[in-house]
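User: Structure tokens for this complex, please. No commentary.
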Amino acid sequence: MKIKGSQILIQALKQEGVDVIFGYPGGAVIDIYDELHKGNIRHILVRHEQGAVHAADGYARASGKVGVALVTSGPGASNTVTGIANAHLDSIPIVVFTGQVPTSLIGTDAFQEVDIIGITRPCTKHNFQVRRVEELTRTISEAFHIARSDRPGPVLIDLPKDVMNAMAEYTPSSFRDEEEPQPRPPSKKAFQVLDMLSEAKNPLILSGGGIILGGASQELREMAWRTKTPVTSTLMGLGAFPGTDPLWLGMPGMHGTYYANMAISHCDLMITLGCRFDDRVTGKIDTFARNAKIVHVDVDPSSINKNVMIDVPIVSDCKSALRSFNQLLKEKNFTVTGDQRREWLGLIDGWKRDVPLSYCRSDEVIKPQFVIETLYELTRGGNTIITTEVGQNQMWAAQFYKYDYPNTFLSSGGLGTMGYGFPAAIGAQLAHPDKLVVDIAGDGSIQMNIQELATAVQYKIPVKIVILNNGYLGMVRQWQELFYEKRYSHTDMTHAPDFVKLAEAYGLTGFRTGKPAEVEKVLRRGISTPGPVIMDFQVAREECVYPMVKPGGPIHEMTLGSREMVN
Amino acid sequence: MEREKKERILSLLVSNKPDVLARVAGTLGGRGYNIETLCVDATLDPKVSKIILTTIADQPTLTKIEKQLMKLIDVQKVTDLTKMATVMREMMLVRMRLTDKNKADVALIIDTFRGRVVTLNGDHCVIEISGMREEIEKALQSLTPLGIDDMARTGIIALERTK
Ligand SMILES: Cc1ncc(C[n+]2csc(CCOP(=O)(O)OP(=O)(O)O)c2C)c(N)n1
Ligand SMILES: [Mg+2]
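Assistant:
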């Protein structure tokens, strides 16, 4: 039986196991929306297309499945670009469907026509325009396959309106993903790494987003524990290794911990897993891990030797590589005695003692770090997902909350997109209705996708927004303070809405405090209030994020802030 | 590793689809690599096209380019022809105005570079010359003082001498 393209689309999405779509309608997709009206797949009506893509992205990061967004042609499509670029830089598997003018009008500058294929070519893993309804099913399953395989990423499918109305048979596509990677016999390189690890005095693991994307946290833990190797993770990798483990060093790089950066600078072997050596991590390349032999496992060959020269490159997904390596460790009965690591772990403990992550506490004014510490104490235990906006709030969320589980810290790493955290929280909450989802926000960033409050209220999505309200575009202000003699050019945000009234206007609950003594109470109330909540914490206005490595400077040279901060 | 910046020839097998060339060009251009010459046409398999392009790069940069190109879904194979035994050719068409003064010289140059006159229209002729890139350059240099109207070059194509 022949059915319409729009019906085939829904069938194919169901076959892919899609249970929620984030979208926004318009003329070019009205036929698809007519199908959705039958209620066959859950659809969340966002208030801006960027929100739809970030929500799909948050859903993907929290669930490990492919997130889906659907928007109309022209402005609907162009509004997705930031969200797509964001997913691209963080390798997040999403599929974005854009409406398009009918094939007969393509290229005529028709009403609401944009060349979204051309626009998104450099920021998608791949994109398709479906020109014939017969190609629809296969294109969709290929798109999902591309999005989640190897190094994941966003895929866009452009759907001309007439293709959605054309009739064809629906036959489920047979495009299949490969099976779960089976443990492979250890390669020559695994033996080589084993030798290096036996000889190394100061080994270190640097893990990245690849561990989370590849579902290899368990394998990472096994390896680190068995070999007593300390671990540092990039922003994208937080949660892969427990933040409460004694071998944990925190995040490295520009706002990394003192001890993670010192460990990188002093290690003699660095085993890098699923990390692409972003400049925010490496600082000055020439001095990065200058004493170390570097092993690099990455599923994307183009990440290897791109920024940092690698001694042992291993092209593989992290899970298979770690599995076979752990197998080898077992077979060889590889053990490390406490004695063998005493010197190295002692050195690290010294750094931890000398310069712990800390800040100047205050009874008068709320320190933003204190809000996060308190939030951590109230929500620890693995049932919480934290998303962040971008700026100081993001760095403090990375530093002062301890992530023990993968897929529980969702943050815009590569693109640094203000406005990511809140819609991503909505997506994450839909993936995990039973978890507590908190967006740690800045007063600037939250205004970038504030319209999604209506979405959260409409669908009773109980995300909690914690605004660290410093009345500034704080991270930019920090740079202006440190590098531009406090010329605060256009970073003052005091002209902001009253967030409590705004919450009420949208129909949710809002709380505010500026008193340190009330932080815990407000957090408790906010968390226990049903439905979405805004908590507006009026924090110390000119607090800076430390440690800080100067942009382009070597990472072992860190500014630690005023000395009394080191407690 | 070879640090010398020089002309490198890449041969790509790609799906024969409308926007593949844009993807390839965008991948190089977007990362700041310049395409010096470019040739595209179908292969024996009509679903597959061959793109031959040249770029000026050192070896590490070329490796990065190859890896980025391999990431494109529509790119099936990338071969660096620079180091292989290949036959390399470029073709040039040159339109000239023939005068009593330059006629003999033009004829001599055509002869030297084993070119031929493709058309002759009144006092205008179009000359075809093919050969190695250096030969084309030399031919062009010799013809220029004799008064070239216009010209077109194909860019380099190359093929491995054996399988
Ligand atoms: C969309 C976007 N525009 C601009 C920037 C540049 N930027 C980075 S951090 C920042 C300030 C963020 O301010 P706020 O959300 O209040 O966070 P804070 O740093 O104060 O915690 C800006 C403007 C960005 N990252 N994203
Ligand atoms: Mg702020």
